[in-house]
Structure prediction request, 135 residues.
Amino acid sequence: MMRWTQVIWLSLAMLPPVGMASDATVPASAASTNAPATKSGKPDYFSTHSPRFEILLSDQALDALRVEPKEYVKATIREGGVLYTNVALKLKGARGSFRHVDDKPAFTLNFDKFADGQEFHGFDKLHLNNSVQDP
Prediction:
């Protein structure tokens, strides 16, 4: 059994509309059908939900990000009772905003790079910014 060494708690900085529960969990299979569609046809999940999830990385993945931060490693994402396995994760950012994995990193999560067709509420890729310019 793999030992998880680092858990990164994330909550997207979006507040749900008044009266909407902020800790609502939607099963991965139902996520794309329960959210209103945007002009692009993608579900607009993030306008009605403020998801909280964990990023789970193995020791090997964490070490690999320290050496090659722009190369994808495998991660597991846990959102409530839903697990997304084999999620591709790499650090993102450029001059000025890039931070190492042990600092305040920004991430790119690619849900279908290692698991064809896997999505997070209708999205195959998420960019999580680190807001290092904020105090």
Remarks:
- The helical segments are 31-34, 59-67.
- The chain has one domain: 1-11+49-135.
